[in-house]
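Dear support,

I submitted the protein below through the web form. The confirmation email said the job was done, but the results page showed an empty box. After a refresh the structure appeared. I'm attaching both so you can tell me whether what I see now is the final result or a partial one.
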Amino acid sequence: MPVTLRQLRYFQALVEHGSFSRAAESVHVSQPALSLQIRELETSLGGRLVERESRGFLLTPLGRDAHEQTLRILDETLLLETMGKRFEEGPLRVAVGIVSTLAPYLVPGILERLQTSSPRVELDVLEAPGQELVSGLLAGRLDAAIVSLPLGILELPERELFEDCFLLAGRTERLAAIRRALGDELRPADLARADIGPLLTLGNGHCFADQVLGASLMWRMQEVHRGTESLATLSRLVASGAGLALLPETAALCEHAASPGLRFLRFSAPQPSRRIGLAHRVAAHGQLWIDLLSEAAAGAGRDLVRRANETICAGPSTSRSRSVTRAKRVSAK
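What the results page shows now:
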C-alpha cells in the first residue's frame, strides 16, 4: 500500500497537536477517519508509529524517524505547490520569526536592506521567545527564524550572523561605584562577589534571561529579580535606579535614547555574549531568499553593534588615564 500525502499530513497534525481529537479538528476530519489514516500509514511502513496511553500517546522509535522524514517531504511538497504562484505574484513573501529580545532593534535594518534586494523579499514577521519560534519552524508555520545559536536540531540548518555582547546597564552613580570598587577590568564573576545591589532580568521562558544568569553564575541568587517581559521595561527599571541589568549590545542604542538615565559599561575580554544566527527549514536550503535574508540580518546586526560601540560605550582600558577620561565622560552624560 503506497504512502499518501494525506496520511503524512494527518501524522504531522497528530505529532504537532499531541492528541487524536485536536489533530482531527485541525485537519477538519473526524477522529475515526484520522485514526484510520494513521493505521494505514503504519501498515505501509511496517510498524507502529504511536503507542496510545491514558493521557495521549508516545512516538515509537520508528515514529520519530518517520516524523523527521515527514517534515522533509511536506516541506518539499509545499515548495512545489507554491513555486509557480510565487514567481507569478512577484515579491517573495517569507514568514520569519525573530526572537523578542532582538526583533524591535533588528527589524528596521533588515527591512531597509531588503528594499533593494533582487528578487524582492517581503517579510511576515513573528516576534516571540526562541522556543516558540523553534516550534513554529518544526510545525511549518515559519520559513526561517533569527534566534540564539546553537539549536542543534537536525531538521533546522543554521548559519551564524553576528555576535551580540552583553553590557552592564545601570545609573551613572551605580556604575561609577563599580569602577571605584573593581577597577577598570570588569568581569561578571567580580560583579557577583561585589555588594552592588540586585540584578534584574527577564522572566521565565526567555532564553536571554537564562543566558544572563549563565554569564552571572555567581551572583547572589536572592538578589536576582526575574519578571519583566521586555528589554524596554527592564531598561526603564534600571534607569530609575531599581538595580543593574545585562543588556545585549544590539538593544543599547535604542534603550539609551528612550531612557536618558541609562548608562553602560563593557566587560573585559572574554566578554559574555550570545551568538545570533538564522535557522531555516530544510526545504529552503539553496534558495536565494535565504542568502538575501542572512546578508540583511547580519549587516543590520553588525551595524547596531558598531554604532553602540562608537556612541555610548567605550571598552575597558588597562591604562589609568583612559579610565579617568571614560569616567568623566560617563559622569558628564
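Response: this is the final, complete result; the empty box was a page-load delay. The CA atoms of residues 165 and 301 lie 11 Å apart.
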